[in-house]
Write a structure and sequence with these properties.
By secondary structure, the chain is α+β, with helices and mostly antiparallel strands. It has a domain of 99 residues. The protein is built from 14 helices and 10 strands. Strands 1, 2, 3, 4, 5, 6, 7, 8, 9 and 10 form a 10-stranded mixed β-sheet that branches. Helix 1 packs across helix 11 and helix 5 runs parallel beside helix 11. It is globular, with a radius of gyration of 24 Å. It starts with a helix and ends with a helix.
């Protein structure tokens, strides 16, 4: 599929425009035949980028995700429950260039919603919406597996949803809003030397809140020893240790790091097309590129970071090299041959 190949090249090489992609690939015209490609033109690539539905690349993402899921290591916690962090990141767009992405009066935006599976750090649930769509609106639509733990920040505060998750057998960990009215039902002992300040069974007492979430939940107080900041967590999990609940919420930062990594290393901040289809295509291709890098990392079983793998691939995109040998740092075959020849002289 020509657009996938060229789009992935654009992601890996950091190209900024269709012309940039075409000119750089054309400079390697003597190698295109062996790659199963032909000479490109900017007009053809532009037409395909605009007309080919982005759903094709969304489907490709699902296929790649499935391939990665069978090779993931477990998360770092001792419990066996699948662990997800749910968050969203806004991608700013210029409203005059992308008028379909109206967000505010003078600003355009779309939003990338991700449910990150901590086993392998895979973006297992991904939705791209208009910038105006609320985080919790998307959160309610995700079909998390029964028995999993979902970590969310206060942007997903929804008492009805908390009750629904509990009924489905899904655990959640979040931060309690400071103005939430609760009554302590039971106090539990805490290990203060681990930063814990409280562990309580509570229920909501607000007139509307009590109707929306008429169940008992667990409130945990924790003070970070480094920053001194005090946190109050809310969860429906009564089995895990209070310190584990605090550590689970801290792990939510991993999804923030995912957004940061993608924005810094892949092309989802500047776009080579202006239509909604072109923008969505570029984002889905970037996510596919992320999964390909994850797959390479899993398959190689080498202790190289995603950043290191990307840096190795970028200057070798048109080189005919064994990928694992490249990642191991083996010298090219012709250099090995030269070394042997010199040794015989």
């Amino acid at each position: 599929m020509v657009t996938v190949r060229e789009s992935l090249y654009g992601q890996l090489s950091g190209r900024n425009s269709l012309r940039d992609i075409v000119e750089n690939i054309s400079a390697q015209v003597h190698r295109l035949y062996h790659l199963g490609s032909t000479k490109l033109s900017r007009s053809n690539l532009s037409r395909i980028n605009e007309d080919k539905p982005y759903g094709l690349y969304e489907a490709l993402f699902s296929k790649l995700l499935h391939r990665c899921q069978g090779r993931t290591p477990g998360h770092s916690f001792r419990f066996s429950n699948p662990l997800y962090s749910l968050d969203a990141s806004t991608i700013d767009l210029c409203l005059s260039v992308f008028p379909w992405a109206e967000f505010r009066t003078t600003k355009g935006a779309i939003k990338l919603h991700v449910g990150l599976n901590h086993s392998g750090h895979l973006p297992e649930f991904v939705t791209i919406t208009d910038g105006k769509v609320g985080d919790v609106t998307v959160g309610r639509t995700i079909d998390f597996p029964k028995g999993c733990i979902v970590v969310i920040d206060r942007g997903y505060n929804d008492y009805i949803w908390y009750n629904q998750l509990t009924k489905k057998g899904i655990f959640f960990v979040t931060r309690l809003k400071s103005n939430a009215k609760t009554r302590i039902v039971k106090r539990h002992p805490v290990l203060k030397n681990k930063g814990l300040t409280s562990d309580q069974t509570v229920e909501f007492t607000g007139t509307l809140t009590a109707k929306k979430c008429p169940i008992q939940l667990r409130r945990i107080g924790y003070r970070d020893s480094v920053t001194g900041k005090h946190y109050v967590f809310l969860t429906n999990n009564f089995k895990l240790a209070a310190k584990t609940i605090a550590d689970i919420y801290k792990a939510r930062w991993d999804v923030e790091l995912l957004f940061k990594w993608i924005k810094q290393n892949l092309k989802i901040k500047s776009f080579i097309g202006t239509s909604k289809n072109a923008v969505m295509t570029q984002i889905w291709v970037a996510l596919c590129m992320y999964l390909l890098l994850v797959f390479i990392k899993f398959q190689s079983k080498l202790k190289r970071s995603m950043q290191q793998i990307l840096q190795l691939l970028q200057p070798n995109l048109f080189e005919k090299r064994d990928l694992l040998a490249l990642l191991r740092g083996d010298p090219p075959v012709d250099q090995v041959g030269s070394t042997k020849q010199l040794a015989l002289l």
